Amino acid sequence: MSNILLSSRKNTLDNNGVLEQNKKFWDNTADKWFGVTALPELGCLIPSEEDLHLFGDVSGKKVLEIGCGSGHSLKYLGDHNASELWGLDMSTQQIENATRYLKDCGYEAHLFNSPMEVNPGLPMGYFDIVYSIYAIGWTTDLQKTFNLIASYLEKGGTFIFSWDHPVMRCMEIEEDNLVVKSSYYDENLFTFEKFGFDISLSKRKISTYINALSKAGFFIEEMIEETDKQTLESESKVEQKYHSAFNAKMFPLSFVFKARKL
Ligand SMILES: C[S@@+](CC[C@H](N)C(=O)[O-])C[C@H]1O[C@@H](n2cnc3c(N)ncnc32)[C@H](O)[C@@H]1O
């Protein structure tokens, strides 16, 4: 991803407008994201699930992915013997791609074409694990989304999610220096263009995620804020983009939370 702060502007849409706009983006670009940001990867230049084992032994577990994209993370958990694969995604094209991909891999999954801000008919108190790899941050209503996720989990169930670290949204490269360009405290919804489509995204503080998890009835077991060893040990040059090794050596590009429903 290029340095989108340079080209971003203030969002002018309401939440429904944002969802409609973002759905258009994901429907039209789904094929470009086939298999991208999927387990065992948890985020950008951070340790993977193979290193961290956050999911533990998933055999016999009922799992639900929020923002399941092309279905590659569900397939990974199926390969590790999860007993039921469920997914939700607001993009019709992503759901079509995931349905085809999982079927080709021999898996039967329950997939819902819906925004995460509503329950499209998912069972309550049912899942052992609800997770989201690089999708939660797209929500237009974080608290509502976390409340819904808590309602899908059985008591003691696990919620794991990863997303862009907000610090990276404050930084830019200027004349080969990494500089703080915007306030960490500024929680804005900004719009930018990618692949010819407008798309809107919220920047939220880490404490906003923590407080929303707590309010939804979660106990935080672990938070990952790390760059992977290989990147830390690599030679790196300044690059005019967020997801560079140079940046990742200075601060985490992604974070992961593992929480338990109380
Ligand atoms: C980076 S992809 C996730 C890929 C996925 N982890 C995989 O294994 O393929 C993000 C996904 O979030 C979905 N998404 C974005 N906003 C959403 C929303 N409000 N509700 C549900 N899904 C959303 C997009 O359609 C996209 O498929």
From TrEMBL:
One of its GO terms (molecular function) is methyltransferase activity. GO terms for biological process: methylation. CDD domains: AdoMet_MTases (cd02440). Its EC number is 2.1.1.-. Coiled coil: none annotated. The keyword Lipid metabolism does not apply. Residues 64-161 form the Methyltransferase type domain. Pfam families: Methyltransf_11. InterPro entries: Methyltransf_11, SAM-dependent_MTases_sf. It is an enzyme of class 2 (transferase). Keywords: Methyltransferase, Transferase. PANTHER family: TRANS-ACONITATE 2-METHYLTRANSFERASE (PTHR43861:SF1), TRANS-ACONITATE 2-METHYLTRANSFERASE-RELATED (PTHR43861). This is Class I SAM-dependent methyltransferase. It comes from Paenibacillus oleatilyticus. The lineage of its organism: Bacteria, Bacillati, Bacillota, Bacilli, Bacillales.
